[in-house]
Amino acid sequence: MKNVIITGAAGNLGQVVVRYFLEQGFRVIAVARDAAEVVSLRETGDKAALNQKDGSLHIVTLDLADEAVVQDFASEIIREYKTVDAALLLAGGFAMGGIAETSINVWRDQLTLNFETAYNVARPFFAHMLEKGAGRIVFVGTRPAMEPAAGKNMMAYALSKSLLFRLAELLNADAGDSDVVSSVIVPSTIDTPANREGMPGADWQKWVKPQQIAELLHMICSETGAPLRETVLKIYGRS
Fold first, then answer.
1. Residues 210, 17: Cα–Cα separation, whole Å
2. What are the backbone angles phi and psi of residue 124, rounded to the nearest 5°?
3. Is 101:30 a contact under the CB 8 Å cutoff?
4. Where are the beta strands (DSSP E) in the chain?
5. If DSSP codes are grouped into helix, strand and coil, which group holds residue 61?
């Protein structure tokens, strides 16, 4: 059984990804923020028609911004399961505001939510994957981080997400020709209940479905995705 770490596991996208990877036979180590998210993730496991006692779903609560806590978590998971095959780093946050509205504190908050949480998890598991010679790390980028015109009114968000592209490039350079690969997926608007509520006049049919993203993440982590290197996947749908 392959082992995958999924952060942001209780989010609208995260729950779909957790369920899909469980259905594909992975052991999922799902990272939640609090007890309420744990309840939600257990319901997700039930929807995947899996018995919680079989060990396929391992839920932990974790402050991803605390480097020491994440290091301890990584050591415990590696000690218990021996091998981590993939880390899907879905956790993050959003903030509107151009340069005039973006104080240094707003920037620091977005840096923590979108970069530091991913960096703290990627660091120990990247070292583990290098040691065993294989593994996949996937970050979640954003279109505004790639297109300045789209990001100018969400300055802190776009800047913090842009660092993930550079991090993936640096990790791939470090990994050399090993079978350890870091990728970035770049979804456009995701078709979630929250987005539909927030944009009632939009054409939802053009949005990307969470299930489509889950399937593409699985492809990256499968034998089908084995030849991929230094990948940025723009999952824009028709939007």
1. 8
2. -70, -35
3. no
4. 3-7, 27-32, 57-61, 86-89, 134-140, 179-187, 232-235
5. strand
Distance between CA 235 and CA 204 in Å, rounded?
A: 15
Cα separation, 210 vs 58, whole angstroms:
22
Q: What are 178-211's pLDDT values in tens digits? A: 999 999 999 988 888 888 887 888 888 889 999 9
pLDDT in tens, 56-84: 999 999 999 999 999 999 999 999 999 99
For residue 234, give both structure tokens.
């723009």
Q: Distance between CA atoms of 123 and 71, rounded to whole angstroms?
A: 9
pTM as predicted: 0.93
Largest CA distance in the chain: 52
85: β partners? none
At residue 70, φ and ψ (nearest 5 deg) are -65, -40
Which structure tokens are listed for 7?
A: 């952060």
Measured distance CA(44)–CA(177) in Å, rounded: 37
Structure token pair of residue 70 = 């994440």
